[in-house]
Amino acid sequence: MSKNQLIKLKIKSKILIIAGSDSSGGAGIQADIKTVTSLGSYAMTAITAVTSQNTTGVSSIVPIPAKNISKQIEFTSKDIKPDAIKIGMLHSPPVINSVLNSLNKIKIKKIILDPVMVAKGGVKLIDDKSIQILKKKLLKKVSLITPNIPEAEILSNTKILTIEDMIIAANKLLSLGAQNVLIKGGHMQSKLVTDIFLNKNEIAKFLSKRHNTRNTHGTGCTLSSAIATFYSCGKTLKKSCEMAINYVNHAISSGPNFGKGHGPINHLNTFIIKKKLK
Ligand code: PXL
Q: Are strands 84-87 and 57-63 parallel, antiparallel or unpaired?
């Protein structure tokens, strides 16, 4: 690699990630940091919980005290002001309330919320009371919410079997106070994956190729972090969603096939490293 190429790697923006740690490195904070970094921005973190997991499942979850989560958010942002925030796993009412409180203090406008509910293997990452607080209070505070179909069904109280159902659910989320909604269609039985972006003035459908693989651990975390990064750099939310979907699609198709269960995707698909290490 020439010196010139190294100099070109200038950091474009700063992202604060509020999410849980995934020891296996495929989802959670680890996926978020890799995504933000590989898209050329600077990642900061407030860790909400520490999970022990591998590609076959979750073996333990240790929550970080709510006060400490607020401390991470506020003390970090006071010094290095984030251009955007990505929120992932928030497991309990005190945690959501603390995060809300801190968001009110630090006043960052661009916030992407991935309403994480269950891990790939089915383990719950949030309790029922928290879902209600998320729906009543947090939904209104963020620029964009990015539920998958099961999450959108719970938040909108509707059943989603078709694309029309996705649009109905997205509209329901707008009526609950959401500003922008991206419902991800990966869980629908279909040849192509359709994701729906919607706000009061516009609707967009993004179609992408479905890859025949079970290695999709961390796709939701990765997508929301990629959206936050593009959005922080000045792209519109709609364009940020389109670019992030494309990034995740390439990350899935070039996955490394690690582990015996739901393996990770390739967050480094944007990187070209000229020097051979192996
Ligand atoms: O992909 C959802 C998710 C979010 N956050 C953490 C996770 C997972 C899935 O495993 O472990 C920490």
A: unpaired
